[in-house]
Amino acid sequence: MSKASNLRNIFDAKRIVVKIGSSLLVGTESGLLRTKWLEGLARDIKRFRDRDQEIIIVSSGAIALGRNYLDIQSQELRLEEKQAAAAAGMVRLAHAYQEAFESYDIPIAQVLLTRDDSEDRRRYLNARSTLMTLLKLGSIPLINENDTVATEEIRFGDNDRLAARVAAMVSADLLILLSDIDGLYNSDPKIDPSAKLVSEVLDITAEIEAMAGEAHSYVSSGGMVTKILAAKECLAAGCSMLIAKGSEVNPLLAIENGEKCTWFRPNRTPYSARKKWIASTLKPIGSYIIDIGASDALKSGKSLLPAGVLSVTGDFQRGDTIAIETSEGIEIGRGLTAYSSGDARLIMGHKSREIYEILGYHGRNEFIHRDDLVIN
Ligand code: GLU
To answer: Where in the chain is the domain with CATH 2.30.130.10?
Structure first.
């Protein structure tokens, strides 16, 4: 049985993805950046960081800023106009964040992702390790969709789902969607005065989906539908999610002070969800045959090092799921390999410090890191 998430409030979260909608950051009429609002957000985030909470920002606003800057007059932008606007707007967006965080000495690092980056296993792992490294270096990754190159078929198209994907990718324990509505309502609050805010959702049932249905898509950008899709992805990844109104200055402070919002709570932790995902690969495409010492080390929670591997079977790439077997052919676990089969064959049986000499590059010390490993 998977362990339930024990996240009660935003103070408990260790790694948080905050998604900022365009309408919060860019004035709808003016098309200009809401600088005071952004300064408030930076102050809020600084407080999180002082409590040792890691933050990743997924921010919209590139298209809105860019269309104003390039003076694009069309009401409905065509795809190529959106892409052009995003190219010009992203520079300004990243610069605005950099300025807002400068006085706190917090570096901002821009990462633009496409859906492919999160669906292809190797690119997924690459993006994951870049983001992890940025966090380790004390910076705040500032993420947006790579709108300038993403064609219609391969776009997320909305940052709610991109943010959920990022949250799953970095095993975040909380995603905060800051938007222009304070949560999920049981009917459309714009037309139904008796509409009630749902304060907690444990499961995305048909009833919940119906509440967010197209007919009730009462949030302008993204809509409630994409927020519920994001919630589905988060819950499957063991990540809590909350929808909160972000339009006032210091929106995160308001949540801390108990402002109403909707919480989506998973029944597993990000850690157990990731392990489940690894264990559920139907057919590993290769294996590492290991010695007794390595087998004991794995059972006591260690990573798989090249030194303990006797042979490699199959033809695989970095990031593929590989079986781990004893020399009697018994599978004792599975994991995501940090090396291709070709490189693995060259360094198996060797000490990790010899990797550079043999391969000519600084690879990982482990064949399979313990975070990427499930032992039966
Ligand atoms: N990536 C788009 C932008 O930066 C926004 C997508 C969305 O609003 O969800 O303008």
So the answer is: 282-375
Tokens representing 163 are: 């943010």
Measured in Å, residue 119 CA sits from the centre of ligand 1 at 20
* Site to substitute for ligand 1 among 159, 165, 166, most atoms within 8 A of C-beta: 159
- Domain 282-375, architecture per CATH: Roll (2.30)
Ligand 1 atom at minimal distance to the Cα of residue 147: 1
Q: Which amino acid is at 295?
A: S
Contact partners, residue 366, CB within 8 Å, separation at least 6: 303, 304, 305, 338, 352
Looking at the chain, the domain(s) classified CATH 3.40.1160.10 span: 4-270
Q: What single string gives the DSSP state of each residue in 266-305?
A: -SS-HHHHHHHHHHT-SS-SEEEEE-HHHHHHHHTTPPBP
**Cα 18 to Cα 11: distance, rounded to the nearest angstrom:** 14
Q: What lines the ligand 1 site, CB under 6 Å?
A: 22, 60-64, 86, 144-145, 147, 158-159, 221-222
Of 157-166, 208-217, 284-293, minimum mean pLDDT range: 208-217
96 or 154, which is more confident: 96
Given the CA of residue 157, which atom of ligand 1 is nearest to it?
A: 6
What's the predicted TM-score (pTM) here? Answer: 0.85
Which of 20, 90, 144 has most ligand 1 atoms within 8 Å of CB, for mutation?
144
pLDDT, position 215: 43
Distances (CA, A) of 369 to 120, 338, 342, 343, 372: 20, 8, 18, 16, 5
* Matching CATH number, 4-270, of 3.40.120.10, 3.40.1160.10, 3.40.50.10090, 3.30.200.20: 3.40.1160.10
What proportion of the chain, given as a percentage, has pLDDT over 90?
A: 69
The pLDDT assigned to 191 comes to: 82
Note the pLDDT tens digit of each residue in 206-251. 899 888 875 444 444 458 889 999 999 999 999 999 999 999 999 9
